[in-house]
Amino acid sequence: MEPIEVAAWVTHSVFAGLWTGSVLFLTFAVLPLARDGTMKAGPLASITGKLTTVSRVSALLLLITGGHMAAQRYTSETLVETQAGWLVLSMVALWFLLMALVEVGSKKVTAGTDQGKLREPARNARPFFLVASVLALLLLVNAGLISANTLGFL
Questions:
Q1: Domain of 46, in residue numbers
Q2: Is residue 111 part of a domain?
Q3: How far is CA 43 from CA 46, 114, 120, 127, 144, in A?
Q4: 142 with 94: CB under 8 angstroms?
Q5: How many domains does the chain have?
Q6: Is position 154 within any domain?
Q7: Per-residue pLDDT of the chain in tens (154 residues, 90 and over written 9)
Q8: Is residue 53 part of a domain?
C-alpha cells in the first residue's frame, strides 16, 4: 500500500473516531448535566462550539480522505452495483445526516445559551443529538462492515 493510501486510511479512521466519540460524549455526558442544571450556560456553549468545530473539520477531512479511498477502489458502476459500493454510499448518506443533525443541535444549544439559558436549550437540542448518536454508531458499524468486506469476510 502506498504511503498516501495509508495516510488517508489513518486520517479517515482517526477523525471518524474523534467525531463520533465527540457526538456521543456531548449527548450522554454533557447534555444530561445541562438538563439537570448542574453546569453553567457558558461551558455548555463552549463545549458545543468545540463539537461544531470538530464536526466541520472531521466532515471535511472525511470527505477528502473518503473520496480519495473510494476513487482508488471503486468505479461508478461498482459503487451502485456491489455490496461494497452500497456500504460506501450508505456511509456517505449517514455522514451527511450526522453533519446536518450536529449543526441543527448545536444551533439549538447556542440559541439559548446566548441568552444565558441552560436547561431549555439542552432539552431542545437533545432529540437532534440522540438521533445523531444513533447515526454515529451506525457509521462505526458501517465502517466495520466495509473493513470486513475489504478483508474478504463478507
A1: 3-149
A2: yes
A3: 5, 12, 15, 20, 34
A4: yes
A5: 1
A6: no
A7: 699 999 999 999 999 999 999 999 999 999 999 999 999 999 999 999 999 999 999 999 999 999 999 999 999 999 999 999 999 999 999 999 999 999 999 999 999 999 999 999 999 999 999 999 999 999 999 999 999 998 999 8
A8: yes
